[in-house]
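Hello forum,

I keep getting stuck at the same step: I have a sequence, I want structure tokens, and every attempt I make locally crashes halfway through. Rather than fight my setup again tonight, could one of you with a working pipeline run this one for me? It's a single chain of 292 residues.
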Amino acid sequence: MSRLNYHHLYYFWQVAKQGNLTRTAELLHISQSALSSQIKQLEQSMEVTLFHREGRKLLLTDSGYQTLKYAEDIFSRGAELEHLLMQGLQPEHSPIRIGVLSTMSRNFIESFIAPLLTMPDARYTLLSMDQPALLNALAQHQLDLALTNIIVQGHDNQLWQCRLLARQPVSIIGPAGIEAAQSLNQGYQRQRWVLPPSQSPIRTAFDALAAQFQLQPEVVAEADDMAMLRLLVRDSGALTVMPEVVVKDELKNGRLQKYLTLPQVYENFYIVTTQRELLHPKLNLLLQAFTM
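Reply #2:
Ran it on my machine without issues. Output:
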């Protein structure tokens, strides 16, 4: 008989994800001592050490990392089976659950789900959250896919299937009628700017170009949410940098204007799924329609 106790493995999996014994015990509604004892039994039965301590932190050993990868697969497959059985083995009739990064362009999201808007039998759920919450919801099989502009990286990336969905050139956008040059030079020196925060890839690329052209932009506001950035540039009279898709309606009606496409600067959009046996049937439909 196998020495592996899956109940103990589940407790290890939860602690490894949380990285904290006390917080995990609270989430699982058991005592910390009982939780610690369960993990110790797992280590003893398998003759391995899964964690080592650094102060109050629990860090995975090499064996712990390997065990976590298998635990992720075991329990995510279990969640997939549970969802499949609860849906009556007819996933094509269930809503497709799409998670979106909360700061992404809503226009881009709408363009991706456009096929669903015209399908009478389509049922879908859109959930907005930050990147860690997106990945956690995917791992727990609470989502069928996630849309993000942040690439998935890290030691657990074998769990994810992250692929580039689209890349959009980034342009200088502002109110119509501003006197601006066709190159990023001193013609932009006197302008006011509303920009993404300094840690964003778009801002990093813009700052590098500004340094190259000795431009010192007067930054009057920053926002990491594309919807808010869109409102700020529309109502403040300042310039910004963003993909045209974010403000396609304002560009069409003339309220905003594109002044310059930044050379070799793009915003990347990714689709993230988990490695699972059964994918929602409408996922391939969305991908095929979007790339046509």
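DSSP finds eleven helices and ten strands in the chain. If your local run keeps crashing, start a new thread with the error log.
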